[in-house]
Amino acid sequence: MKISFLGHASLKIQIGNITLLVDPFISGNPKASHIDVDTLNADYILITHAHQDHILDVEQIAKRTGAIIISNYEIVSHFQTLDIQGHPMNHGGNWEFDFGRIKYVNAIHTSSFPDGSYGGQPGGFVIEGEHKNIYIAGDTALTYDMKLIPVSTKLDLAILPIGDNFTMGIDDAIIAADFVECDKILGYHFDTFGYIEINHDEAKRKFFENGKDLMLLEIGESIEL
Ligand code: NI
Ligand code: MN
Fold this sequence. Notes:
225 residues; alpha/beta; seven-stranded mixed sheet; binds manganese (II) ion; binds nickel (II) ion
């Protein structure tokens, strides 16, 4: 499993020959101007919630690639009205896809579309593929529900928001890492705009002092699990 950071909360995940994009927000992120939205490949697009900074490039990429949306029922229904195909899920549900298994899990946040219409409840994803298991928290507060994840899945990586203000910050993300029982963390949802700027060295040090490894990738950089 190869995971690339595309800036903000946008990820590319390659499992075998299948490519998943997560929350593509690239054309609106000046820090990601070196990522070309028009050449990004996708078989599936996973969407954690309906906010603009998670769905901005979905329509364009899905129409060009024919990618299938995986998200909550309301978000999938929204994109189906735009002639984009999708697989609707809801919290607690699992589905076996051709690349592996996905569970849509709880997040504490909001989920309106940019026009204010209802985007269902926000979520995160647990993805099991190629014998690797990852958790993508989405935008969320620290929540006790995270303790349910290791009950069913032994994680190899947790991808957690760390930018604070709109989501949990570093201190709560360290507790979240404990709750999901994973010491290998990829931070996301930081630095994109003023409210969520973080001190990278301090963030890494705090995780290290708690026995955890925080990775912060450059935009475009990848890790292999
Ligand atoms: Ni959000
Ligand atoms: Mn966000």
